[in-house]
Design goal:
The chain has 11 helices and 13 strands. The protein starts with a helix and ends in an 8-residue tail after the last helix. The chain is an alpha/beta fold and about 375 residues long. Helix 8 packs across helix 11. A hairpin with a 3-residue loop joins strand 12 and strand 13. It has one domain: 4-Layer Sandwich (Metallo-beta-lactamase, Chain A). The structure holds zinc ion. Zinc ion (ZN) binds next to helix 4 and strand 12. The site of zinc ion has 7 residues, from helix 4 and strand 12.
Length: about 375
């Protein structure tokens, strides 16, 4: 074969070679894309909110919601935990009797995270290889940095003191030198009215100072000043809802809400009218959550919510709960408008068709309490007269 023939053949085959090379590049790109997708936040693994059985009495149960976010059930009120490279952030602290078990569960999550993120050996790097990475020594786990109190009920803030002292503050700038000060525990964030309640209410004298919020906000919302475990965390004030100091916490990257006592999947919400709570405030808050939520498909999956009590839910569950409360609110409002007294409204049983689902565990007397709270909060006008 002459040189001319060889070059002619090469020219003829080059488009095919180019195709083959292009195909290999595409395959590589796809492989990298799927690899990096695995490292990023994934769509929820739940086709819908899972129906998990409640843990046995006196035990806590941990459920991974998505990515670095976990729900801890059985600690009094539910706890939402973000566990990752920056340490631990907890929404609510559970009841004091359960705190040791909560700390054990959090420690286990921290260790699991450390094992999953053990540095890999660098391969054939010879003298540039890191001996620390090579020996597979996991980085020390980062402590509890933040506790967020959604409101001032003991089954939600009761674990504050022990959890705070098990952690360390997360800070920087000119106070960075204080980080290792062992007397400085985790920061406790809450709406200002939670601090007011815990320092001026009847129980104030029995609450030690380490149980109190260290940082409060008084406007509509509060944002952590920087990403925590790879995402923005926002506290949203729900005025006049369960009480006057409720915060919902939104994890913007993993797309998860911690709702506090705005929702309880097994019961009607507790509305503390004497502490500034109202039915319309709860409805406003749930509507706000629905405004900000996305369903993955036909109201299933997508944005997930950890309610203060009960199981993990998605926006379909929140919409159902909101509808149920709206219907009951409208019935009570209607009866009130017709001049019925509270006793007459109770006797009319405006919750009857929902009682098997939301009152069975507490008996009928708690339904009376709920109807009374709805009635009284409408008397005061609530946040908005009607929606
Ligand atoms: Zn509660």
């Amino acid at each position: 074969m002459s040189a001319q023939q060889i070059s002619a053949r090469l020219a003829a085959s080059s488009p095919r070679r180019g195709l083959v090379t292009g195909g290999a590049c595409l395959a590589l790109a796809l492989a990298f894309a799927s690899l990096s997708a695995q490292q990023n936040v994934q769509p929820t693994k739940f086709a819908r909110a899972p129906m998990v059985q409640p843990p046995p009495q006196g035990e806590v149960e941990v459920l991974q919601v998505r990515g670095n976010l976990y729900a801890i059930f059985g600690a009094g009120g539910n706890i939402t935990a973000s566990v990752g490279p920056d340490g631990v952030l907890l929404v609510d602290a559970g009841a004091p009797a359960m705190t040791d078990k909560v700390i054990a569960a959090v420690t286990r999550l921290q260790r699991e995270w450390a094992v999953r993120n053990t540095p890999k050996p660098l391969g054939f790097g010879a003298e540039t290889r890191s001996s620390v990475a090579d020996r597979h020594i996991p980085a020390p786990v980062k402590p509890i940095r933040y506790i967020i109190d959604t409101h001032a009920d003991p089954e939600h803030y009761g674990g504050n003191e022990k959890l705070r002292n098990a952690g360390r503050t997360f800070t920087g700038g000119n106070v960075a030198g204080d980080i290792r000060d062992s007397t400085e525990g985790a920061a406790i964030l809450a709406h200002e009215n939670v601090l007011k309640r815990l320092t001026s209410g009847a129980e104030a004298a029995s609450i030690p100072s380490d149980m109190l919020p260290t940082d409060t906000y008084y406007v509509d919302y509060y944002k952590l000043s920087q990403f925590f475990n790879g995402e923005g965390v926002q506290l949203i004030h729900a005025p006049a809802a369960h009480s006057d100091g409720d915060s919902m916490v939104y994890f913007r990257g993993t797309d998860v809400f911690a709702l506090g006592d705005l929702m309880d999947t097994d019961h009607y919400p507790e509305i503390e009218v004497d502490r500034g709570g109202s039915i319309n405030g709860i409805l406003d808050a749930l509507n706000k959550v629905l405004e900000m939520s996305f369903a993955e498909f036909r109201l299933e999956g997508g944005t997930m919510m950890v309610p203060g009590h009960g199981r993990l839910v998605d926006s379909g569950d929140v919409a159902y709960y909101r509808d149920m409360l709206t219907i009951i609110r409208d019935r009570v409002q209607d009866l009130r408008g017709k001049g019925r007294t509270l006793a007459e409204v109770k006797a009319a049983r405006p919750t009857a068709d929902y009682d098997t689902e939301y009152a069975a565990a507490r008996g009928l007397s708690s339904t009376d309490g709920f109807v009374e709270a709805v009635y009284r909060s409408l008397e005061g006008g609530g946040v908005k007269a009607a929606r």
